[in-house]
Design brief:
two-stranded antiparallel ribbon, 14 strands, alpha+beta, 417 residues, Aminopeptidase, globular, twelve-stranded mixed β-sheet
Length: 417
């Protein structure tokens, strides 16, 4: 993409390069210390992974594939120094909704000005994005002010939970009552899409804009995901509960389990609002799955429109780790006007363009219609016998020497007087 100059003529917005990663890491450390955040270690780990796989990600961005936009980032540089950076990625398969993964700004510069320039650059450059989505910690006042200034509105409140290994051991003692628990495949994409649609409010559903294809995994994506799991020593286990009478999926879970015990287990859970009794059963099933892996925490997420989940997690003693705010905004791209469609044309030029290219020529039907309108005073006689010769001659004298003979068949002949 073409670099762009923000309001400061000496600053430049451009795609991130390998040499910028160290400067971005320093900005992350400084901003986390200034705001007293606990996310510094997690962000530094992500930057290390990006540094390790930078050239692979760069290669994947050159041709169409599911990971083409896995690492899309831009920086604001001035006098060979990095002032801010932003990372974005598509949220759904169609690319109608994009996500702002993170924005980091040097504490020594104005975060509102520089951050707004980066956000506006992404809004104007990524034309296929109609909606933008992001998630921010409720205690990050600087980022909240930045996002609100650029039109982002609250969508939902998210809560991250941690279930201790001791609680998982208690849940493992329960025998889950899930007779129709099935493994997930691409053939179940329609069922999972319907479950996902029913489990969220209309506004959230509109922003996410997911379709059947978002629940399918292609061959290339499955191959790359398998390599990623092998390198990161993780394993993904998923399943869904099928309701035979309604022919629908009523519950779904996916777990990313650590095989070496260095990271917590992460679970994603979706339950139909009419089947909230599935929460104890699915959590018991997930707790039993963790038995085959090293002991670790189990991380879960809940939204404020899922009160039954939050109530059950509090009931079993899960710990609230973090509270975030899900925000979104729409983007309308202006259509570029061509010079020929300018409104500077004079009125005479407009009328001249409406004139016909050549003089119209009367056809046979238009000639007959003209003759009929001219002699509208003559009564129709196509439903009576033809007049005699004497009557026709007398009529011809009264019509300036021109007479028409109308037969039963509707044909007419003219006699010149």
């Amino acid at each position: 993409m073409t670099p762009s100059s923000p309001q400061d003529t000496n600053a430049l917005i451009r795609p991130v390069q390998y040499r910028d990663l160290e400067a971005i890491k320093n900005i992350v450390v400084q901003s986390c210390l200034a705001e007293h955040h606990s996310c510094c270690a997690h962000t530094k780990q992500q930057l290390e992974r990006v540094r390790r796989w930078y050239w692979v990600l760069k290669l994947l961005s050159w041709f169409p594939n599911p990971f083409r936009y896995k690492f899309t980032a831009y920086v604001v540089s001035k006098a060979q120094s990095i002032l801010a950076a932003i990372q974005v990625s598509p949220f759904n398969r169609t690319g109608s909704t994009w996500r702002v993964d993170r924005v980091v700004v040097d504490p020594q510069v104005s975060s509102l000005e520089v951050g707004s320039q980066l956000l506006r650059y992404c809004f104007e450059t990524i034309l296929e994005a109609r909606t933008w989505l992001l998630e921010v910690n409720i205690h990050d006042k600087a980022l909240l002010a930045l996002y609100r200034r650029n039109g982002f509105q609250p969508l939902a409140h998210m809560t991250y939970w941690a279930i201790a290994p001791s609680m998982l051991a208690e849940l493992q003692e329960r025998e889950p009552d899930l007779p129709n628990l099935l493994p997930v495949s691409n053939a179940d994409a329609q069922l999972l899409y319907q479950l996902d649609t029913a489990s969220m409010p209309p506004l959230v559903r509109q922003v996410f804009d997911r379709h059947n294809t978002d629940f399918k995994t292609g061959f290339v994506a499955a191959l790359i995901e398998g390599i990623r799991q092998w390198l990161s020593q993780t394993e993904v286990v998923s399943g869904y509960v099928f309701e035979s009478q309604r022919k629908a999926a009523i519950g779904y879970f996916q777990m990313q389990l650590s095989r070496n015990g260095t990271k917590p287990h992460v679970a994603e859970l979706t339950v139909h609002p009419a089947y909230t009794w599935l929460y104890p059963e699915l959590l018991a099933q997930m707790a039993r799955i963790t038995q085959d892996f090293p002991t670790q925490l189990l991380l879960l997420t809940s939204a404020d429109y899922q009160p039954e989940r939050e109530e059950y997690l509090r009931q079993i003693g899960a710990e609230e780790v973090e509270h975030t705010l899900l925000m979104s905004r729409s983007v309308w791209h202006k259509l570029r006007e061509s010079k020929s469609g300018s409104l500077d044309m004079s009125l005479s030029e407009v009328f001249q363009g409406l004139q016909p290219a050549q003089k119209p020529v009367l056809g046979r039907m238009s000639w007959l219609k003209t003759r009929t309108l001219r002699w509208r005073g003559v009564s129709r006689k196509d439903l009576v016998p033809a007049p005699s010769r004497q009557e026709a001659e007398s009529d011809s004298q009264s019509l300036s020497g021109v007479a028409f003979r109308i037969t039963r068949r509707g044909s007419r002949s003219a006699d010149q007087g």
